[in-house]
Amino acid sequence: MDFIQVINPARFSEVVGRVPVCSESDLDCVLDQAGAAFKSWSRTTPDERASCLRAAARDLRNAMPELATLFVRENGKPRREAEIDVSRSIELIEIIAEDLPEWSKPALIDRSQPVWARRRARGITAVISPWNSPVLLSCKRFIPAIAAGNPAVVKPASYCPLALMKCIDIINRHLPSGVLRGVTGSGAVLGEKLASDDRVRTIAFTGSTETGRRIMELALRTVKKVFMELGGNDPAIVLGDARLDDEAIGRMTHSILRASGQVCIAIKRVYVHHSRLNELVEKLAKSFDRVVVGDGLAPETIMGPLNNKAQFQFVRGLIDKCTRKGLMVMTKGRKLSEADWNAGFFVLPSIVLGANEDDELVRCEQFGPVIPIMPFANEKDAIARANNTPYGLRASVWTEDRHSAEAIADQIEAGAVFLNNHGIFRDLRIEFPGIKQSGFSRESRAAALDHYADTYGFAE
Fold first, then answer.
1. Across-strand partners of 352?
2. How far apart are CA 86 and CA 352, in angstroms?
3. 222-254 pLDDT, tens per residue?
4. Choosing from 74, 83, 94, 229, which is the catalytic residue?
5. N or C: which end of the chain has fewer CB within 10 A?
6. Is 264 a catalytic site residue?
7. What is the pTM for the complete model shown?
């Protein structure tokens, strides 16, 4: 069998591990086993499934130090970010286990007849995962799927599969054979088969819009239920009255540079009222200059490397294009180790001034630590420019006037709009994927479980 080597993005010479290249016939066997497991797993009680999940969460919590270290070595994130990714995954498992028994109860929806809404498992769920946050973004899909009584087959990204596969191994200690499986290998082979195979009833994908389109096209042939969280080009609108103190600048810096900017819900464009442009640039530049870039396992590191060569070359190319065009590129930050700098995919954070709406840096999802900052004269102009994108994942408004923020939020085309912050919901029960070409499906409270179940009416 062939294998894929997983390289440490902070140290090219280090092979962190390797995973097998599964073939289409290997995946056929996995799907057959999942189909067999469905017959018994779907008949277990919600309390039994919740008990399995709680036990898995305990084992994962005990393995946290090992999982976080492995995550950093294959992904590049600083250790504190890796720990958050894993710990929130464990928290999610505990939340789903807590909610499952109540969610599973039939709901009386019409007393006149009467009619109850009852739920049942749909069948095999396929989860295709990204490399930027593989553990949490996978658990958010396959944990509610198996909790609802379905088997799940998870296809990790080849750049970053190890921590996720380790988590799957730990969870599997508490599940019957075939309920949860990870398969590694070519996305073109495995992803296409999962999207088209009629044994798969639900598919959840997080990744690029281009790949999402292909998965939707294949899933349509067998009328699968589809969850899509796709690309983003998130705008931040900074009004003239915005508070730009150290705390606000810190939040904005984190929202731009978290995971080296390799987050679909990172700020990727900043529109600032012209009266505050110089102040914002000066304060953000000072904040960026305090960012230490290096190996994610070093305690001094604030921002790690980019994850892979393709992304590194793309981001470097964007910066080079800006320089050649004559835009002002303010490169900031500090190198943790000059000697080791060229041994990894390291990029210092940059602020770009002078860009316009037609520049690639403004139009694309850069997925890296480089941010264009552009002035606007009035709110109408800022809103129009913020919406001038095929994406609609997240957005933020920075102002002391909540009424103005809500009025702008009503006009922004995004799945969620934040006030004086950007990016995540603290409550893991709540999720709002994007609109337009950033995806669809909504998860709020029990909706994560609802997506992986069929609801049917039972009437007297």
1. 329, 372
2. 33
3. 999 999 999 999 999 999 999 999 999 999 999
4. 229
5. C
6. yes
7. 0.96
